């Protein structure tokens, strides 16, 4: 939980100005309480309906966060063999893992099979054939769900919308019954469920319910035809509020509506939330290096950059940027930019913000999802540390990279 107390901005019971001084900047800071509160909001809202909340590892794959969720009983949605490795290292239960993604490699499929994951969310008939062949060689039976594409517009950024026919994801929902029927010839596959995911950062849940209704109708048709469909995987995608005035659906009431639609279906429900669990749980701390003016244009130059948080450059995403110590100075309008040698290196443009001076610390808010996981070493910049706050204490869960880390694995 993040809030001001008097003039200081806190993560739970830790003042962020003190934390920035101790661990340096830039640095990612996460609230364990926020992560657990958001996960439990999903889990508890389902009530007695059989369900699994599979955290979307791609949102934030830090071992300590995965471990925190694993200890609460969470499942996991993965999209690579590397993410499965992380889940296993963190103590996650492979029997609660679903493997999504359009380009699973033969090695990844074999790795997942040998560790006994719950289900593959399959996105092509060629993938079904591959999984069957690998399962036969290992003398295993592989559970699968076909990810159907319902041709529903998620009304979100085009880069994170996945439910329309022009997107690479899934199999057209009208083609799915025939694909399930053809899959019956594979002796090492078991049709466990139906999967659907239409995008990310969805602020109006109406498209999710439209997709849910289509997936439910498909599941009912398949069961009537004799397919042993046992679960419906609704995916994730629930959005979060990135700035004051933006409205996002509350987790509990949203899931209660999902539960009401599914309670008579006889199906177990799976959801794959990521951003809505960890997004509001993180900030990126940065320090002001310089102030600069070019004509009428004001710049606040900070030590965080697009390599640390690429969302503003990639998606034109808005993250609130606030001082970790309140100032009585008048507000300014400025671009907040970093040291990377690109005009695209900005964290905010024409932003009304606190009048921050060199040496001041700023918090870039709602950075817990798709922040560190998308960071890079561009311009040979070491990646930031990650810090997990638990009440009045904190621990560094990923050390700041060094110059030596930049060349580890390279040779002259």
Account of the 3D structure:
There is one protein chain. The chain has twelve helices and 21 strands. The chain has helices at residues 16-23, 32-45, 63-71, 81-89, 106-114, 125-137, 176-183, 206-224, 251-262, 275-278, 311-315, 403-407, and strands at 2-5, 8-11, 14-15, 27-31, 51-56, 75-78, 97-99, 119-122, 142-149, 171-172, 189-195, 231-233, 268-271, 282-294, 297-302, 321-323, 332-337, 346-353, 361-364, 386-390, 393-398. Strands 4, 14, 15, 16, 17, 18, 19, 20 and 21 form a nine-stranded mixed beta sheet that branches. An eight-stranded parallel beta barrel has the order 5-6-7-8-9-11-12-13, surrounded by five helices. A three-stranded antiparallel beta sheet has the order 1-2-3. The protein is elongated, with a radius of gyration of 23 Å. The model is unreliable at 159-164 (pLDDT under 50).
Describe the structure concisely.
The chain has 412 residues and is an alpha/beta fold. 28% of the residues lie in helices and 26% in strands. The protein starts with a strand and ends in a 5-residue tail after the last helix.
Secondary structure: elements and pairs:
Blueprint: E1 2-5, E2 8-11, E3 14-15, H1 16-23, E4 27-31, H2 32-45, E5 51-56, H3 63-71, E6 75-78, H4 81-89, E7 97-99, H5 106-114, E8 119-122, H6 125-137, E9 142-149, E10 171-172, H7 176-183, E11 189-195, H8 206-224, E12 231-233, H9 251-262, E13 268-271, H10 275-278, E14 282-294, E15 297-302, H11 311-315, E16 321-323, E17 332-337, E18 346-353, E19 361-364, E20 386-390, E21 393-398, H12 403-407
Helix pairs in contact: 2-9, 5-6
């Amino acid at each position: 939980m993040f809030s001001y107390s008097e003039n200081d901005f806190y993560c739970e019971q830790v003042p962020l100005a003190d934390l920035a001084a101790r661990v340096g900047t830039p640095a990612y800071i996460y609230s364990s309480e926020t992560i657990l509160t958001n996960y439990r909001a999903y889990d508890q809202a389902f009530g007695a309906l059989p369900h699994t909340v599979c955290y979307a590892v791609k949102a934030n794959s830090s071992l300590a966060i995965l471990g925190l969720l694993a200890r609460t009983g969470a499942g996991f949605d993965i999209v690579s063999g590397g993410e499965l490795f992380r889940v296993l290292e963190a103590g996650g239960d492979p029997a609660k893992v679903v493997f999504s993604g359009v380009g699973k490699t033969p090695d990844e499929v074999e790795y997942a099979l040998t560790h006994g994951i719950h289900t593959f969310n399959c996105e092509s008939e060629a993938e079904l054939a591959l999984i069957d062949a690998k399962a036969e060689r290992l003398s295993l039976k592989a559970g699968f769900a076909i990810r159907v594409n319902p041709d529903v517009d998620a009304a979100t950024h085009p880069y994170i919308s996945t439910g329309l026919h022009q997107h690479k994801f899934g199999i057209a929902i009208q083609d799915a019954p025939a694909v399930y029927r053809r899959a019956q010839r594979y002796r090492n596959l078991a049709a466990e469920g139906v999967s659907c995911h239409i995008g990310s950062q969805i602020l109006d849940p109406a498209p999710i319910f439209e997709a849910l209704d289509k997936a439910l109708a498909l599941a009912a048709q398949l069961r009537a035809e004799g397919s042993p469909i046992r679960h419906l995987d609704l995916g994730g995608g629930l959005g979060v509020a990135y700035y004051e005035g933006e409205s996002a659906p509350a987790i509990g009431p949203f899931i209660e509506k999902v539960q009401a639609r599914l309670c008579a279906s006889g199906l177990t429900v799976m959801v794959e939330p990521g951003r809505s669990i960890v997004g509001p749980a993180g900030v990126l701390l940065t320090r002001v290096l310089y102030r600069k003016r070019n004509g009428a244009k004001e710049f606040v130059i900070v030590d965080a950059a697009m390599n640390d948080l690429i969302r503003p450059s990639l998606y034109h995403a808005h993250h609130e940027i606030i001082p970790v110590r309140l100032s009585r100075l008048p507000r300014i309008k400025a671009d907040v930019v970093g040291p990377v040698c690109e005009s695209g290196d900005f964290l905010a443009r024409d932003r009304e913000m606190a009048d921050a001076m060199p040496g001041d610390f700023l918090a870039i808010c709602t950075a817990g999802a798709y922040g560190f996981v998308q960071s890079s070493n561009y311009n040979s910049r070491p990646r930031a540390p990650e810090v997990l706050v638990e009440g009045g204490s904190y621990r560094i869960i990923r050390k700041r990279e060094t110059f030596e880390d930049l060349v580890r694995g390279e040779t002259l």
